[in-house]
């Protein structure tokens, strides 16, 4: 779907496109395709060989970052006006993040080659990107430190979010099938099985999830995402 006038107007609220004149905004819009994504839908997977950059015109998405070891996980939430996928557009490498729709979303998609061409042609766009990447790196350093000191409950919650996201079930009422045992979860997050079992039992009592053998139902996504220690 091509970009209509309403979408062109909403582009002005995208952080990466701040301070751009109308001519530059129009140039971006001309290269953009508009996608309507339902809640819970997987948009990109870690390791995908795709290079598009996405602008979040409406809605919210959730991103999962996994370290090379496969054990360290961070979650980030991207709201309307944000963007994602730009790293693969820049370096052509596989996706480093898994993204799914936390709500119904409207995305503006730029092909990787088009994104690079726009950066070369419009210096302000490149400056905005460099500034954003610097800010993001500082925040990531803080979050990596936080991950080291996170308690077992937070790590269990994050693992459950990962499992739900991979099956496109990170929505209220979403069902994780073939769910791993507490032993498997404990091995993944670096905790003992008894501690994991206590956390899962508490999440059940609080109504956040309902777990049975091999099946976990997500009752309250927002409560599950509340991972503050």
From TrEMBL:
<dbReference type="Pfam" id="PF00027">
    <property type="entry name" value="cNMP_binding"/>
</dbReference>
<dbReference type="GO" id="GO:0003677">
    <property type="term" value="F:DNA binding"/>
</dbReference>
<keyword id="KW-0804">Transcription</keyword>
<dbReference type="InterPro" id="IPR018490">
    <property type="entry name" value="cNMP-bd_dom_sf"/>
</dbReference>
<dbReference type="GO" id="GO:0003700">
    <property type="term" value="F:DNA-binding transcription factor activity"/>
</dbReference>
<keyword id="KW-0805">Transcription regulation</keyword>
<dbReference type="InterPro" id="IPR000595">
    <property type="entry name" value="cNMP-bd_dom"/>
</dbReference>
<keyword id="KW-0418">Kinase</keyword>
<dbReference type="InterPro" id="IPR014710">
    <property type="entry name" value="RmlC-like_jellyroll"/>
</dbReference>
<feature type="domain" description="Cyclic nucleotide-binding">
    <location>
        <begin position="16"/>
        <end position="136"/>
    </location>
</feature>
<dbReference type="InterPro" id="IPR036388">
    <property type="entry name" value="WH-like_DNA-bd_sf"/>
</dbReference>
<protein>
    <submittedName>
        <fullName>cAMP-binding domain of CRP or a regulatory subunit of cAMP-dependent protein kinases</fullName>
    </submittedName>
</protein>
<feature type="domain" description="HTH crp-type">
    <location>
        <begin position="150"/>
        <end position="222"/>
    </location>
</feature>
<keyword id="KW-0238">DNA-binding</keyword>
<dbReference type="InterPro" id="IPR050397">
    <property type="entry name" value="Env_Response_Regulators"/>
</dbReference>
<dbReference type="GO" id="GO:0016301">
    <property type="term" value="F:kinase activity"/>
</dbReference>
<dbReference type="InterPro" id="IPR036390">
    <property type="entry name" value="WH_DNA-bd_sf"/>
</dbReference>
<dbReference type="InterPro" id="IPR012318">
    <property type="entry name" value="HTH_CRP"/>
</dbReference>
<keyword id="KW-0808">Transferase</keyword>
<dbReference type="Pfam" id="PF13545">
    <property type="entry name" value="HTH_Crp_2"/>
</dbReference>
<dbReference type="GO" id="GO:0005829">
    <property type="term" value="C:cytosol"/>
</dbReference>
